[in-house]
Amino acid sequence: MKALNVGIIGCGNILEAYMKGSQIFNQFKIKGCADLYPQKAQEAGDKYGIKAYNTVEDLLNDKDIELVINLTVPKAHGEVDKAILNSGKHVFSEKPLGVDLKEAGEVLELAEKKGLLVGCAPDTFMGGGLQTTIKLIEDGWVGDVFAVKVNIIGGGPDNWHPNPEFFFQPGAGPLLDIGPYYIHALIAMFGPVKTVEGVSFIGNDTRYLTSPPERRGDVIKVETPTTNFGIYTFSCGVKCNFSYSFDCYGGTKGAPIEIYGTEGTLFAAHPLAYEFTASLKLRDQEERVIPNIYPCVDTMRGLGVADMVCALESGRMSRVTGELGYHTLDIMMSQYESSEKSMLVEVKSTCEKPKRLPLGLHLGEVDV
């Protein structure tokens, strides 16, 4: 397979993870980067030995670039995704796919019109830990699954991120920023969600930076919900109790995803990374850690891009489709609607359950 030439738009905090992770995969090669601020692109180009484009338009006009990874801030995702597609290139977008369903829908419609692929992060559900978790479920180790508990509880990114303001603006918050990691994983386990009910609110409308030290004490105005509680009901009948919050200092001591079945409980691998392991507690047995049966390392950003390239080559459906990103956004927007109207909301969209990776892979492979 010839490596696909890839460009990156957005040279912020997450770029380093993509540059490191991309070294694992031979399906694509990152050739250059661009940013709204040319100096940031130049610094990234010098650091990673790739081409720094003077403008985003220059990158989009480069005919050698075939796919673009969109690493801009959430409120820019839809606009940038459409610009990428209009330039004739496939797009892999950081989450969420858009700040609302209208914007995300326009991205998918444009991609279909142009005959191009859209992929959407996160791809961590394709990591070794969660793929092992999914195989345990599919092989019936805990019997029939009837319920799931999800806990994303913490104090927020204002104590570690160098520029955390966007986390507290529309398009982010714990639901839209962290939620997709968990929702993609849950859809990969159980398929699409049918209904959502819950509440969302702002725990504190003012945040004070503690990181970096030179900005300690700077004030952030909170403009999006920072705590979310509720219930998902999947089309397969499984129910999920979820809690997402940036307001709970000290976090939670429970596993991030607990899966309850008729024969036991499965503590899923953590969805925020690729290499964590699952553990299993069957009735009348001690809990035991399950070794990963898929190869993985701690940083594999770009796994979804590699899968898209293989899909383009073979004609199969990718595992990180735009439809998956849209359904995830629809679930999260339904959560906000449920909170606003104090009622159960039916999720109007659906998507295919991503296929589990085949067994027998080597590190960096997504197809046998």
Could you characterize what this model shows?
With 368 residues, the protein is α/β, with parallel strands linked by helices. It has two domains: 4-124 and 300-321, 3-Layer(aba) Sandwich (Rossmann fold); 125-290, Dihydrodipicolinate Reductase, domain 2 (2-Layer Sandwich), CATH 3.30.360. The chain contains ten helices and 17 strands. The chain has helices at 15-22, 38-48, 56-60, 77-86, 101-114, 128-138, 173-177, 179-190, 303-314, 322-341; strands spanning 4-9, 28-34, 51-52, 67-70, 90-93, 118-120, 145-153, 193-201, 206-208, 219-221, 227-234, 239-245, 257-261, 264-267, 278-282, 288-290, 345-346. A nine-stranded mixed beta sheet has the order 16-15-14-13-7-12-11-8-17. α4 (77-86) packs parallel to α5 (101-114).
Give the structure's gist in a few sentences.
It contains ten helices and 17 strands. It has 368 residues and is α/β, with parallel strands linked by helices.
The end-to-end distance, rounded to whole angstroms, is 13 Å
Which range does the strand content fall in?
15-25%
Low-pLDDT stretches: none
| Tally of individual helices | 10
- Overall number of strands: 17
Oligomer category: single chain
CATH class of the largest domain: Alpha Beta
Strand order of the largest sheet: 16-15-14-13-7-12-11-8-17
Main sheet characteristics: 9 strands, mixed
Count of structural domains: 2
Helix content: 25-40%
| Average pLDDT level | 95
Q: Globular, elongated, flat, extended or rod-shaped: what is the shape?
A: globular
As for the CATH topology of the largest domain, it is Dihydrodipicolinate Reductase, domain 2
Structural class by helix and strand composition: alpha/beta
Q: In the CATH classification, which architecture of the largest domain applies?
A: 2-Layer Sandwich
